[in-house]
Amino acid sequence: MNNYPNCNPFFNPGADSRASAPQAGAALVDLREYGDPPALAQGVLGRVTAAFRDRVEVITAYGPCQAQLRGSALFRAETVPVTGDWVQLDYLAGGQGRIAAVLPRRTMLSRPDPAYGGQREQVVAANFDYAFLLSSLNHDFNLRRLERYLTAAWQSGAVPVVLLTKADLGEASDARRQAEAAAIGAAVHVISVRTGQGLDALEPYLRPGMTAVFLGSSGVGKSSLVNALAGGEWMATGAIREDDSRGRHTTTHRQLLRLPSGALVIDTPGMRALGMWDVTEGLDESFADVAGLAERCRFRNCTHRSEPGCAVRAALAEGSLPQARWDSYCKLRQEAAYADAPEAYLRRKTEKNKQIAQFNRKRKTNR
Ligand SMILES: Nc1nc2c(ncn2[C@@H]2O[C@H](COP(=O)(O)OP(=O)(O)O)[C@@H](O)[C@H]2O)c(=O)[nH]1
Ligand SMILES: [Mg+2]
Ligand SMILES: [Zn+2]
Description:
Blueprint: E1 44-51, E2 55-60, E3 63-68, H1 71-74, E4 86-92, E5 96-102, E6 108-112, E7 121-126, E8 130-136, H2 143-156, E9 159-165, H3 173-182, E10 187-190, E11 211-215, H4 222-230, E12 255-258, E13 264-267, H5 280-286, H6 288-295, H7 311-318, H8 323-340, H9 342-366
Parallel strand pairs: 3-5, 8-9, 8-11, 9-10, 11-13
Antiparallel strand pairs: 1-2, 1-4, 2-3, 4-5, 6-7, 12-13
Helix pairs in contact: 2-5, 5-6, 8-9
Bound molecules: guanosine-5'-diphosphate, magnesium ion and zinc ion.
Magnesium ion binds next to helix 4.
């Protein structure tokens, strides 16, 4: 669908395309079919359908094309275009486009870049309306991971939708109940690409011009679902090694496709780990139950450890807040603190360790 030949975006069969910048005649493509195109004062507008290290594939009003990144983007001095981005293209003599600017993103999902030891941001995809969070119902199902994805999805600005996949392989009601409890405010659907179960329920999200990004571990069935919705083998899928429920990494880049319904979907390779950036805001949404409890503590700055009138500890004691969910919240909260301000976090931590060491020394000498 999007495997375009290397072609000139501004190609105008009537003009000498090497001599002059585009005077492209009739537009071939209505970009509204590719989302919600922003206005552009100059240059040619395009949406990135696939992103690679040094170039992108773009759809423009004059058809699909390849475009190079500017040198400064390669060295990450400026925004690196990702799949789903709207970009302004310049014409390069020789029949290639070049990215002049990445337009402001409406939504985006980012994580600490594993290639830079987590010190830099890696944007996974941009300008999507829905984040489909896929989790398979075989041994892959992991509530803690789902909580992570939910938090990042809320943070992205899009609407998360949880899809429990491979319903044909097992009983779904337990996982569904757990997912619904964790995914407050997000819809949960149980689906199977094998049997077609639950696919109808996705129609309301897949309206013309809407973009959905597919997220989840490798092997959960993202590409299979994209293919089922697209009605063809557009994305490669992998046989799964059932012993450890890990799929092979068959999807190697992020690809935006247009479905027959008119919706856009972005397929992504599985991510081994979804780190966290600046997620405090997303946390309070994905853990709305915990945040709500904390508001009812007697003390505003309650640490939920030993204060009287602590609503969190009360809920833990009576079991209405599961201990595992609380632990998970505390862990993500700690990571969020680190992501928001790593230096301050490390300073606090070192400070605390010093205090503990001092305390232990004192205890020893007092004995
Ligand atoms: N039984 C069953 N297997 C599925 C289903 N969806 C995908 N699979 C299989 O799971 C494996 C991984 O699928 P793939 O789409 O490549 O996963 P991705 O890595 O998330 O893109 C493939 O062998 C698929 O055939 C499903 O609904 N039921
Ligand atoms: Mg895949
Ligand atoms: Zn409290």
